[in-house]
Design brief:
Strand order of the largest sheet: 2-1-3-4
CATH architecture of the largest domain: 3-Layer(aba) Sandwich
Largest sheet: 4 strands, parallel
Length: 247
């Protein structure tokens, strides 16, 4: 006899960068509800975070999306790179995801972040990244082009994903508190799937008094909401108490 297996509620696929240390770990922290399963694969990439290295992933996204559970439908397919989704553009990433998994609803960290800002009803976003200046300029302009204001922007100025993943959670907290302390900032966004936040977001929000999210934190929430997992999830900040508009 067969049953529904471990994914009786939802199957979420995740394309992880070869150099990523953190996104799977944070997905496992949150996605513990029965019947919801995460299936991941890794995409080749350089740990050096440059425009060229980000663009180079374009040729592999569709194939890596397709390799997850052949012959079994996914509800959602998430591509786990914020800066590449910005450099390539969300529409292009969606096109590639749909080529590999036409049945799955696509999302990316920046798509999820924008959905989180709508849920928060925030338009003035403070941003913290690990990136170098040229990537930071691209990120900031992408936010502005999508109708957001970015009054405060902070960066750890790293060019290597392996180093970005080792930025301490205390340093991340301090950067978020510094950026978020500005009165013109409504919400703080921590960009990059290698940076750690999810298990500390509750405490940081309590100290800051403003909503906080990150690439992984928003991506997990958005993937769950797209997959129909709509209940509030305690312990991971204010975003996880909210629905995603339009899902």
């Amino acid at each position: 006899m067969l049953d529904e297996g471990i994914a009786s509620r939802a199957r979420i696929g995740l394309v992880v960068l070869a150099s990523d240390h953190t996104v799977e770990y944070e997905f496992r922290q949150v996605v513990t509800m029965p019947g919801v399963a995460i299936y991941q694969t890794r995409i080749p990439n350089s740990p050096e975070i440059t425009t060229d290295s980000l663009r180079a992933m374009e040729t592999d996204i569709a194939d890596q999306a397709a390799v997850i559970l052949p012959g079994v439908e996914l509800d959602v397919l998430a591509y786990g790179c914020t800066s590449a989704s910005i450099v390539l553009g969300e529409d292009r990433v969606f096109e590639l995801i749909k080529k590999g998994r036409p049945e799955a609803q696509p999302t990316t960290p920046v798509t999820a972040a924008f959905a989180a800002f709508r849920a928060f009803q925030s338009r003035r976003i403070g941003v913290v990244t690990p990136y170098s200046e040229n990537i930071n300029r691209t990120v900031r302009q992408y936010f502005i082009d999508n109708g957001l204001q970015v009054p405060v922007f902070g960066s750890f100025n790293q060019t290597d994903d392996n180093r970005a993943a080792r930025i301490s959670t205390d340093s991340i907290r301090d950067a978020i508190m510094s950026v978020g302390s500005h009165t013109e900032v409504e919400t703080v966004f921590l960009s990059c799937t290698s940076l750690r936040l999810t298990d500390r977001v509750d405490d940081i929000e309590s100290q800051l008094g403003k909503p906080v999210t990150s690439s992984n934190h928003a991506l997990i929430w958005h993937a769950l909401r797209l997959a129909g997992v709509s209940e509030p999830i305690d312990g991971y900040g204010s975003l996880y108490q909210l629905p995603a508009h339009g899902t």
